[in-house]
Amino acid sequence: MAHNQTRVAVTRRLPSEIELRMSELFDVTWNEHDRALAAEGLAAMMANNDVLVPTITDRIDRRLIEGAGAQLKLIANFGNGTDNIDIDAAHERGIIVTNTPSVLTDDTADMIMALILALPRRLVEGDRIMRQEGAFTGWSPNWMLGRRLAGKKLGIIGMGRIGQAVARRARAFGVEVFYHNRSRLHADIEASVDATYIDNLDRMLRSMDIVSLNCPHTPATYHLLSARRLALLQPHAIVVNTSRGEVIDEDALADQLAAGKLGGAALDVFEREPAFNPRLRDFDNVILLPHMSSATMEGRQGMGEKVIINIRSWADGHRPPDRVLPSAALD
Ligand code: 8YV
After folding, report:
1. Ligand 1 atom having least distance to the Cα of 108
2. Is the CB of 79 under 6 A from ligand 1?
3. Least crowded by CB within 10 Å, which of 66, 152, 311, 329?
4. Which residue owns the Cα nearest ligand 1 atom 9?
């Protein structure tokens, strides 16, 4: 199929350079209003386009996939995680699904490191104080004491690209790194990230000062940090979640914080996004971010370029480079 005959529907506005290039290459339908589409809007886009470019705000479930026009052959997700798409249903219908890996690894790892620094050093709390007229009355020895990072133990859950990038950064700050993963890393990679594998998640949780969630959301990782597991953490431990809200039982986390049994939490993702448990606003030892860990101009540009490359390869009759297979969706 000639590229400019490929009909592509894009569910959200993208960086302008990417939109321009896509308009040159393909016959594109845009969502001009840039508001998340309801199921009917998505169904309309899937009824007569060859390619759908969704984002995390679009739930492409089995019903939508089964109701799609026969011409829909590619779902080129603008995003790394694909838990918004029913990969099995797409596979059964012969629809290829692709994602945008690697281009947001460094940005996400930088944000995780920023949160690992910000929470124990009370960065956001300090800023909040300065914005309140008269709240800062002058220095004193016991003012705003936090906790030192060097020498602490970080437990990374999910040691893929992002987990490894976090490990490298944390080592530079003198942090001892441990990880839990479905399978142990190859010895060379493990040595290069200087991290110790712990096969039993419960055992790892009991001894960490910081826990970072870097695994995808799958049926196997839903509520991986359950009430029972959160209770295994040390009372000073902090939890950083930039993966998916569903990986933590958010209500149990709020209970644990309210009971003073946790050192704190830094959350960029939420179980019922964009909604979240409002009790989380009450705690000074919680940092809340609006799903922005990968939000850099360079990252979004890279994601857009990946989407274009995936569509072009498919339109040329090649296998798109970033295919997501049903088995990989369970990783
Ligand atoms: C993206 C993300 O911005 O790529 C991911 O998996 O979580 C985000 O950082 C979002 O998914 C875009 O669709």
Report:
1. 9
2. yes
3. 66
4. 294
User: What local confidence, expressed as pLDDT, does residue 328 receive?
Assistant: 53
**Separation of CA 28 and ligand 1 centre (Å):** 22
The DSSP line for 42-104 is: HHHHHHH-SEEE--TT--B-HHHHHHS-TT--EEE-SSS--TTB-HHHHHHTT-EEE---STT
* Residue 331 pLDDT: 40
- The ranges of the chain with pLDDT < 50 are 329-331
pLDDT digits (tens, 9 = 90+) for 120-130: 999 999 999 99
Q: Quick check: is 273 catalytic?
A: yes
Domains of the chain by range and CATH? 3-103+296-330 (3.40.50.720), 105-288 (3.40.50.720)
Torsion 155-161-164-166 (CA) sign: negative
Pairing of strands 51-53, 74-76: parallel
List residues bridging with 153 in a β-sheet: 176
Catalytic residue among 13, 59, 206, 291: 291
Can you tell me which atom of ligand 1 is nearest the CA of 292? 9
Q: What is the DSSP letter of 328?
A: G
Token pair recorded at residue 90 = 């797409």
Number of alpha carbons in the 13 Å side-chain half-sphere of residue 112: 29
Q: What is the pTM of this model?
A: 0.95
Atom 1 of ligand 1: nearest residue by CA position: 79
Let me know if 291 is a catalytic residue: yes
Q: Is the beta carbon of 178 within 6 A of some atom in ligand 1? A: no
User: Helix, strand, coil % (nearest 5) of the chain?
Assistant: 40, 15, 45
